[in-house]
Specification:
By secondary structure, the chain is mostly helical. It contains three helices and no strands. It is flat. It starts with a helix and ends with a helix.
Length: 94
């Protein structure tokens, strides 16, 4: 009697697992392929460290002043007004 109840309870779980088996295979294959490609790129690509790559800006210009300077309020207002009117147009033209 107990074996019959256990087999009835186990059957829907197995069928549910079999329905998602394709998704599990796909996820495993994508993670495996991504890790193989990443490892191959690290092993086979010539890695050259340059001082220019680690400089502050790659364009060649040194920064003029601190990047954390205060902006004027009108820049924020223009951005907020753009968002408001952009969303308004979305609702006007469905």
């Amino acid at each position: 009697m107990i074996i019959g109840v256990a087999s009835l309870l186990a059957t829907p779980i197995i069928t549910l697992f079999l329905e998602y088996l394709f998704i599990f295979k796909y996820l495993f294959f994508t993670f495996f392929l991504a890790s193989v490609l990443f490892c191959a790129s690290v092993l086979f690509v010539y890695q050259q460290v340059e001082a220019e790559k680690f400089s502050a800006y790659e364009c060649g210009f040194n920064p003029f002043e601190d990047a954390r300077c205060k902006f004027e309020v009108k820049f924020y207002l223009v951005g907020i007004l753009f968002l408001i009117f952009d969303l308004e147009l979305v609702y006007l033209f469905p």
